[in-house]
Amino acid sequence: MSDVINKLKLVRLGIDTKNEFIIYIHEDCFVCKSEGFETSTRILVTANHQSIIATLDIIRSKILKPSEASLSESTWERLNVKENDFVTLSHINPVTSLKYIRSKIFGNELTANEFDDIISDIVAGKYSNIHLSSFITACATANLNVTEIIHLTKAMVKAGKQLHWDHPCVMDKHSVGGIPGNRTTPIVVAIVAEAGLIIPKTSSRAITSPAGTADTVETMTVVDLSVEKMRQVVNLEGGCIAWGGTIGLSPADDIIIRVERSLDIDPTGQMVASVLSKKAAVGATHVVIDIPVGPTAKIRSEQEFLKLKEYFEVVDKALGLKVKVLKTDGSQPLGKGIGPALEAKDILSVLNNDKQAALDLKQKSILLAGTLLEFGGKSPPGQGHLLAQQLLENGAAFKKFIAICKAQGGFKEPPTAAYTYGIVAAHKGTVVEIDNRNLAMVAKLAGAPHDPAAGIEFFARIGSAIDKGQLLYRIHTESKGALQYALSYARSIPNIVKISRET
Amino acid sequence: MSDVINKLKLVRLGIDTKNEFIIYIHEDCFVCKSEGFETSTRILVTANHQSIIATLDIIRSKILKPSEASLSESTWERLNVKENDFVTLSHINPVTSLKYIRSKIFGNELTANEFDDIISDIVAGKYSNIHLSSFITACATANLNVTEIIHLTKAMVKAGKQLHWDHPCVMDKHSVGGIPGNRTTPIVVAIVAEAGLIIPKTSSRAITSPAGTADTVETMTVVDLSVEKMRQVVNLEGGCIAWGGTIGLSPADDIIIRVERSLDIDPTGQMVASVLSKKAAVGATHVVIDIPVGPTAKIRSEQEFLKLKEYFEVVDKALGLKVKVLKTDGSQPLGKGIGPALEAKDILSVLNNDKQAALDLKQKSILLAGTLLEFGGKSPPGQGHLLAQQLLENGAAFKKFIAICKAQGGFKEPPTAAYTYGIVAAHKGTVVEIDNRNLAMVAKLAGAPHDPAAGIEFFARIGSAIDKGQLLYRIHTESKGALQYALSYARSIPNIVKISRET
Q1: Which of B262, B266, B419 should be substituted to probe chain A, the one whose Cβ sees the most A Cβ atoms within 10 Å?
Q2: Which residue, A216, A302, B262, B340, is the most exposed by fewest CB within 10 angstroms?
Q3: What pLDDT was estimated at residue B5?
């Protein structure tokens, strides 16, 4: 039904709208007139035998001629065009999967085929931000049931590449977010790979947190690996730490995460689908899921934990994965750093066995690595943590980490921020509670994860005795504006670090 | 906490993004660098002592210098700036009402204050399309309860102007959508005003239908009246038919409707709030609500009708309005025309007492006008329709309608389409069912409501005997492309007009 109607010559205006596909056309363009296109019309744009759907912005000035068109930067790259190429425009077929979203909004359960259609339309770029936001919100609000989460997960796996490995045990781990600085992955991968298991780890960038593992590792090495490169690194070193986005595993996930970030939500059903679609796509067979529970963590109660655990277990089973779910302490940040480079420094300290290394980060990494070693048959039950500790403390894990970084493209030291400011205690007392959510907000306002050196260095663990004027945390930023902004927010929220009053 | 940091000179690039506020800045701009702004950052933009929040698109070409900025056309108008004016940029305060949307997503009931904050932030332009879409979807999915609908309605009234009239009875009506061509309002207003009652009618543009009353009346006269003009027209003629959008009554409604149109939904709670906020804001005291019920209408069952009726009655009571809810036939289109100009022609035929005027449209207009005449004390119970019929058939209503149009800015004949194409019956039989939803879709693909002359002329009422090859409906378009597109859609859907096979 699509009806190719005319050609316009491309001019590069260089407008970066991030992932939203936009086409710019002059108001006097004959194609718009004959086709009835107006601002906000969704149009099928074809060039080089590839098509995508873009939203029309009309140009009412001389930056374009009526016979010309321009594309936003991501559209330009997706269609792989160059200046003076031609694009053809046509009406789009109605995006039929949108009716399943309306169906979900009205409370219906969606089928496997309906999720497949939605996800493949999302990956094909047929959804505008308005549609994506509605899909995410509808699934969050209506609380997908377990069957729907299974359908959604499988649809997300199908929509991208899938890896296969010639090993009976392919290990993987995932930590549910919500705890600033919970950055065990690089340490765990190094230990597990050093022990001789296969662990082709892909990680995501931050959704609502100040840093994702991919953001953190990117301050030390290259994380956007091709599938071929990833395979090479794993064959050479047994493990890797790659950003899942560029590999093309579960590509829908990256599109959905971008809108979730704008909404500052990460709802349960989509979280489970997001995590497990990545695990299934990467070819994992054995997965350890770490769920931190605490009063301001993402999961706040035993009840929520049990519900999420059940979701993970049921969906894992449907996908044919073996899974172990661990409940861990989610009451406060792990390590001292919050933000990409600051977390990377914590990781290097632990791997280096520095005296001032964060003990909690070390212990948690040993717990998770130990569980994986037992799960993969490298250690008898109950003994995994001893082997993990040994491989960490004898320096073997550090060497393995550097070797992995070198295989991925070289190791570099994480950067240091240009501006810092210390927040001190207003009175003497003992730290009784940490507001993780607002602490993360301060780190984000400081610029994390976009500015790699930005974030927070945190010194006030729960139970610490604090003097008046003692440093609680230090804000790091790459710009003055960000520092002022993070500071004013920090000052406007009382008790980010709650200190008991001595009586 | 907002922190004004620097000035950029404005250049008009003339980019029309509709209502989405966008600011364009060069990638090398020092403000972006020092503040850490990147593509998609939401920024507070101030000029002429007014501020709005806009989304940043970064320019990676020479169409702007690093010391310049541009604004999308709607932003330019909203800030009332001119070329070479300066704008200052600063970080925005976090939009705190967004957390109430997250709360709604997680199933909580929202309070009156929370709705007030959401609606006033929406009117202030603080929500991106992603946020608006999430709010609309969350409220639709979670099914607002009656208390929340009352809060939402009052918040929408408060966020705009409110009119007051020195009359004990200020009449109003509303027809719930879903029936193509259900355009009784102009006829009802003419009759009721002619009878001596006050009826300051505001109407909306189409949400998901091929025409709203404002779109239809706009083909005959001016509908974007100021409050002063509206008052003048009503004082002179007793009634008016104005577009609610420009008057500033319930301005949140127009923003919400725009996103609902992209999502092609019009959920119950928001519909009730949208309708009644407009009635309360316009100062109505007596309101008749017409709810068409039919298998492909918006309201499809007795149960849905009763639920909606209850919502209207409870919310009306909370707002201090008197309301009568009527259930009407929603099985097929009313009149022959679907689309702004075609519906306007139907209206003029009825007012003119043409022989070929649509009888169903006439009868329904008499029913609604009669109910209003009784409600307003101009006729004893059960006699309203007689008075209404008399005022229509003696030509008084027609004269009143023309007088109202003249008072609003002059009367003109509705336009005629450049292209038409007739759809004929594939076989002999009797019309047994009309697929209103797909019929409306064909009219929209033909260009309605954007192209005023576009739409459908409909000839195949339920029960009609039809010969093979007989005209069922005629598609009208303003462009060839739209005609081809509407046609291919019409041909791809079987049984838009379902004809029984003679046996």
Answers
A1: B262
A2: A302
A3: 47
